[in-house]
Fold this sequence. Notes:
A: globular, B: disordered N terminus
Amino acid sequence: MNLVRSELLKIRTTSTWWIFGLISLPLWILALLFNWLQTDALAGGTLEDVPAEQADQIQAVQSADSLAANIYTNGQFFGLLIVMLLGIIVVTSEFFHQTVTTTFLTAPHRTAVMMAKLVAGAVIAMLFWLVTTALNLVFGALILNSVDVGAQFGSGAVWRAVGLNALAYLLWSVLGVGIGVLIRSQIGATVTGILLYLGGSIGAIAVLALLASKYGEWINKLQVAVPSLASSLMVSGAEIPGNPPRWVGAAVLIGYAVLAGVIGALTLRRRDIS
Amino acid sequence: MSDGQRSPTTDSGQIVVSGLTKQYKNVRAVDNLSFTVASGRVTGFLGPNGAGKTTTLRMLLNLVTPSGGGATIGGQRYVDLADPLRHVGAVLEASSAHKGRTGINHLRVICAAAGLPKQRADEALALVGLTPAAKRKFKGYSLGMKQRLGIAAAMLGDPRVLILDEPANGLDPEGIRWMRGFLKGLAHEGRTVLVSSHLLSEMQLLADDVVIIAAGKLIRQGPVEQVLGSMAQGGQVRVRTPQADELVAALRAQSATVETGEHGVLLVGGLDAPAIGKVALAAKVELHELTPERPDLERVFLELTAGKAGIR
């Protein structure tokens, strides 16, 4: 527990956390505006000219549950990215500033250090989730009321989405810490993380689509194996026809997080600090 | 410092390195190295750049995994110490703090991890004279202040054993003087102080014992005087006189050896300074200088490590 306290103190005593907080705020506002417009459009039913095969999907998205879930998990796209980057920095800043020597002198059992970093990353992730969710519940309810959908606070699906959103924040912070251990360079790890999060999904979709056209449609189902796609599946507001169930996305993401944590711990144990 | 100050109670701070080896891909950085470091004394760990000093210290502290052999501090491996900071303090790099963190917070982070009370951070800062800079960020520290902060961090747990890697690097003369007094004081309290350096003149003033390595191998270990003594240069004495011919004749009559050095300096062997003075007086020769030549650590070091230094 001493180690976790120390890790949290490390984060608190540098400017990183509030810089990331400051970056998050405009991104959250941007996301809120976008989701406001989208909610408005969907609730107003202005999207009528859709092909028949997509009608089911649209209907699912248009449901009150889905609209509410979407708005209460607002800011998630960039929020997860921020939380992952914080997880990366929790590790890479130790190598960047050469404080890792002191850290391991203080705590020679490196697995314990890794666990402390994972827990500290998770605590930060939960704080970001908590603040974002609190804001979402206030402004989301206003928006939903303004489009006559209602706040939907009584809906189980809404709270499930909020809960899964918390899980997503948690898992991406773990992934961040894992990436940070594997790629010590601050810039290298950050770029890799961003690519994995943003570009990775697009690239993976393109590659999988190419493979699918060659080997058959089933390959498209592998999309869920891509971390960012698994994540977006997991936090999609409601079950959408044609997509794998949300728990699959959750399982895949948990798998990646555990893998990142374990490989990270093993790597850290063996590494020479010179 | 005399051997009399070593007491059995402080001997739990003894460092034992035995058969330590580190093989990198193409280089054997440390090669079957064994030595011991006693408590209550300052031990200089000497070697040319690239001799394997830092690698040895890092293996001792469980930061680098040895390819063979091992090292213990007070009979235990570093990784097995229950509260490492309460046993061992180490200063390895001057620049090992987050640039955006204040000095006091740097120490508090370590206190938190080691389970030490927060006020130890203030006490350690005061100990190294950094209290006025406590709330300044690390990036605003001078090199000397960074070294002091490193020492403060090492002293947080009030350890029996101190290990410092090139602590004099980048210090100004005042800083070096302070460091020398500080480390000697710690040894005087019965602590073990192991200091690596390639600055030999500094070690001659600071160390009680020396461990000299080159190319990863042990060259010589022992008390400074003993290591110097083993390399004594035949005890020559520098003599300057306006009447060189008469003095040379008188000295040779006493079967002394005389060589002529630069600027008319005579290097006399076989007689010590008082004897030479007596001869000069008897011969009514005027003396301008009479200096026994001491072998200095620098020369011993260069001779001992000749051909083993440099790039490997």
